[in-house]
Amino acid sequence: MWPAEGESFDPRAIRKAVSDAGFSAPEVTVTATGGLVPRDGKLYLEMAGPVSAFLLSGGEVVDPLRRRDDLAGQRFRLRGQLHATSHADQPPGLTVEHWEIVAESDPDEGDR
What we know:
By secondary structure, this protein is mostly beta strands. It has helices spanning about 15-20, 60-65, and strands at about 30-40, 40-45, 55, 75-80, 95-100. The protein is globular and about 45 Å long. About 15% of the residues are buried.
């Protein structure tokens, strides 16, 4: 499912919408573009849209990203699995499977 051109949506609503329709979505893959922000020992992807950040955790990719000092100020496209639940005081969690640095002028870099 992709948002309309120039639009975005809250990915946390996907599981509920699928469930309300009588189906299940054991995995929800999210592709999002934004900037990496370390805060309080955690790593976040901050972006524009109804969800302003993802808490990046789990998987083999996040720890190496967290240790890289050369990535500050870069724009990223991440793909990963949306966590089924998140803490009320935290943004939704994302287990990162793939990441890449994107140019500011990348035509495919819309926030999703």
